[in-house]
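hey
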């Protein structure tokens, strides 16, 4: 049974932070969304579209505004030959089997429909349409996709789990695992770990995993960012517990601040340019010294969409990672627009952090 999501209301088209908040909550609670549609306030096609959905035997989540909440209920009643009733201050179809504040659930022709009222500034109401599948995520590093599938597919068949592989960045594969039985997923992960020692991390969110690992080992990380402009810091500080492992970060966009804040040598900048292995090496060293952290990540590059040269075209990025005992710098080239290059750069830096100290992270 597929899960379809329908947004009804102009604000879900134009208010992207509100829409993203709703999507995060629904995906966490209900699992994968097979299809998402948006209907504006003036769209009169909802009745016909709803009839098609109800006859398709789907799991249907309808997110609407307070303004449209009762109208949506009327349309559902017309399509299902039902009547609206007032319960706990909400107008809803009489056949609704479950309801909480601003949320109700009903079943019709083997389809399940959860209607949710959501507006700006409100907490997401309870989702009554829960996921029937159990899921888990593992992250696997330094393996080619085809090789990994040859390793994992026989185990997946043994424990009757379904796998979806996606690449975060080169050398980092995310594996989404789905099953009807929790025990099967657990056994699959255990068997996979034995075949992929020091390559597999069992975690739904890799940054939360890093925060937990560093917190337990009383270690800290800091960042020195140029072209990513603080994106690494944002990716970490959006999660609880970041303050335990991150004292701060330095965004040194100009050469002057690279010199003054991170002690990057002026001659190194002049001879190699800000986008170079030599500069990110000194950036990571400076970040480690100024913060007294255990690890430092540094990024400098040409994110675009302009600013590239023949020698260093748009998408050219250098990343440095450093612990108290070792360091590594990488020269990379990413495709995409400015924001996607920045995202790939941050994710590659996170990958390099994990791999520089396998004893801590694996």
């Amino acid at each position: 049974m597929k899960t379809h999501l329908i947004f009804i209301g102009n604000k879900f088209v134009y208010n992207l932070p509100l829409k993203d908040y709703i999507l995060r909550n629904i995906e966490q609670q209900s699992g994968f969304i097979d299809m998402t549609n948006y209907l504006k306030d003036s769209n009169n096609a909802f009745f016909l579209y709803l009839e098609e959905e109800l006859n398709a035997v789907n799991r249907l989540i309808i997110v609407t505004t307070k303004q449209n909440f009762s109208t949506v209920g009327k349309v559902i009643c017309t399509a299902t030959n039902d009547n609206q009733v007032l319960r706990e201050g909400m107008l809803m179809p009489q056949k609704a089997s479950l309801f909480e504040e601003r949320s109700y659930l009903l079943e019709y022709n083997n389809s399940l429909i959860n209607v949710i009222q959501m507006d700006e500034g409100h907490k997401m109401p309870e989702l009554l349409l829960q996921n029937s599948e159990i899921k888990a995520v593992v992250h696997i590093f330094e393996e080619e996709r085809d090789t990994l599938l040859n390793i994992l597919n026989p185990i997946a068949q043994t424990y009757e789990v379904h796998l979806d592989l996606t690449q975060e960045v080169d050398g980092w594969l995310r594996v989404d695992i789905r099953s009807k039985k929790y025990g099967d997923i657990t056994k699959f992960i255990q068997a996979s770990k034995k075949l992929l020692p020091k390559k597999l991390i069992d975690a739904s969110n890799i940054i939360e995993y890093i925060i937990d690992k560093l917190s337990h080992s009383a270690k800290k990380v800091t960042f020195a960012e140029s072209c990513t402009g603080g994106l690494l810091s944002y990716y970490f500080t959006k999660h609880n517990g970041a303050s335990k492992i991150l004292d701060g970060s330095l965004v040194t966009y100009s050469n002057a601040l690279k010199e003054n804040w991170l002690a990057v040598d002026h001659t190194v900048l002049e001879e190699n340019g800000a986008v170079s292995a030599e500069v990110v090496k000194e950036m990571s060293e400076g970040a480690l010294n100024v913060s007294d952290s255990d690890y430092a990540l540094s990024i400098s590059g040409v994110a675009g969409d302009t600013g590239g040269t023949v020698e260093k075209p748009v998408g050219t990025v250098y990343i440095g990672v450093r612990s108290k005992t070792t360091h590594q710098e990488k020269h990379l080239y990413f495709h995409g627009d400015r924001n996607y290059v920045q995202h790939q750069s941050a994710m590659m830096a996170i990958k390099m952090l994990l791999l520089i100290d396998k004893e801590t992270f694996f």
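The chain is about 40% helix and 25% strand. The first helix runs from residue 11 to 14.
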